[in-house]
Amino acid sequence: QVQLVESGGGSVQAGGSLRLSCAASGRSFSTYAMGWFRQAPGKEREFVTAINWSGSDLYYSDSAKGRFTISRDNAKNTVYLQMNGLRPEDTAVYLCAAKEYYSASYAAFDYDYWGQGTQVTVSS
Q: What span, in angstroms and rounded, lies between the C-alpha atoms of 72 and 39?
């Protein structure tokens, strides 16, 4: 069992930056792939980025490429999402997810554990 707690959300103006963190409890964090998804009011949950167990494979949505960076620190059981150049359309609840068995995925249904999310609001 893995519990995930996100932090670092907030309100910023367009063009600003935020760094989200997701702290995992439980054993074997280093064997999990991790992902970030987001969900805006009235919209479907959307893939943002993912990282495999070792950090060697990274996946980004088209919207996130060039602006967002995912990373992980297995010694700290934490995954990060650095978001630069934020836009109003990035406004959403950002959720961290963990997937067993090493390899990352774009699909939300592949993930086994989810955090509660952290709100990111970008104003124009």
A: 22
Read off the pLDDT of residues 8-33 as tens digits, 9 standing for 90 and up: 999 999 999 999 999 999 878 889 99
How far apart (Å, rounded) are the C-alpha atoms in residues 99 and 89? Answer: 27
Distances (CA, A) of 118 to 16, 38, 67: 17, 9, 19
CB 94 within 8 A of CB 37: yes
Q: How far apart are CA 30 and CA 51, in angstroms?
A: 11
User: Residue 24: enclosing H or E segment and its boundaries?
Assistant: strand 18-25
Do 64 and 85 form a contact (C-beta atoms < 8 A)?
Answer: no
